[in-house]
Each structure stands twice: as structure tokens, then as C-alpha cells.
Amino acid sequence: MHTGEQYHEFMLASPRDRIVRARFQQLALDLLPAGAAVLDFGAGTGIDAKTYAANGHPTFVFEPSQAMRDCLVRHCRDEIDRGTIATIASPLACEVQAVTANFAVLNHFADHAALFEQLSRTVRRGGFVLASLLNPYCLADARYRWWRANLVNLVRRGHYAIASESRIHRFAPRIVARAAAPYFRLERRLPGGFALASQLYMFLLLRRV
């Protein structure tokens, strides 16, 4: 629905999304060793990348959308000029301690196996992938027909796709963990317990082994 500058302004103005983003960024920063390099995968307009760079982390950004990249270059002009943010054409063009993928980037993939194999050549051993995915267990979505229609698929297969132009996929954490093996292991899922049912997004931390 939003591209480029529209998306950028929407995300900065949305109180709900700002809260989610702040939680994600803080978790990433808490996990990153001082000065460690990070790849912002599906970086959008560079909002997260700008924060990582401001906290002393050399940041690579990979964003396939030209409209998003154009906005990112404008938004992060100073950091790009200083060399604290670098745009890359492939995740394989860098070696980092961590990869972050915020706001449902991984929900655009039908299968993550090939992606995690690629990321295993980017993330150093002991590093991590931190991903924010749409939560298939969010009870607020139960009011939608597509959620109710796919409940059996979620229970049986742990995965379903919503019939739309963007073909967004929803995954149970175990499905992502299975795709990430043997290169990564699922270390943490946030939120935990019954709190998961109240959140639109879930955070998955996958450790490089």
C-alpha cells in the first residue's frame, strides 16, 4: 500500500509501529557486541539502519525495492557519505555478526531454506539472525475470514499464505526453525507464553552454529 516516502512517513507517524520498532531495535542492540557489523536485510527506507549506525555498528543495507532504496539513500545520506552505512546488491557482499529483518520481511518468502543457507555465508559463527514476523497466533486477526479459514492449515502444517497480490505467508516458529537448520538454531521467541496471542508481530532469534 505504501512505497518510498509514503511508507517512510507512515512508519514514523504510526504510534503502534514506532513501539514495535523500538522494541526490535533495542533487542538487536542488546545482542550486538560493541562495534559489530550488521546487515539490515530488507532495510526499507533505512530507519533501523540509521539507528544501528548511530550506535557504532557498521551497517550494510540490502533492499530489493528501488522506491525504498531511493528513499533510504536520501534518509541516510550523511551515514552513507561517512561510510557507516553501505548499500549492497546481495547479502553475500558482506560478512557480519548479525542480520536483522524487521517488519515482516521474511513473510514475503514461501520457503526460507535457501535464504538461510545464503545467510549462513554472511553471518559469522556465533552470530545471529533477528527477524520480526507476522504472528499467526494473534487473536486480533480472528475477526478476519482468512484467519479462520486457515486455522486448520496453521495447526496441521504450520504455514499458510493469504490470497492477495502480495501473497503474504504466515509461519509457526517451528517452520522457520526447520528451514534455518542446520545453519541456525532457534534460540528465542518473543513474546513468550500466552502473551503471544496479543501481539501482531513475533520476534525470532536464530543463532548461527
TrEMBL record:
Record keywords: Methyltransferase, Transferase
Gene Ontology molecular functions: 2-polyprenyl-6-hydroxyphenol methylase activity; 3-demethylubiquinol 3-O-methyltransferase activity
EC numbers: 2.1.1.222, 2.1.1.64
GO biological process, one term: methylation
Keyword match Transferase: yes
Annotated transmembrane regions: none
InterPro entries assigned to the protein according to its UniProt record, in alphabetical order: SAM-dependent_MTases_sf
Domain of life assignment: Bacteria
Protein name per its UniProtKB record: Class I SAM-dependent methyltransferase
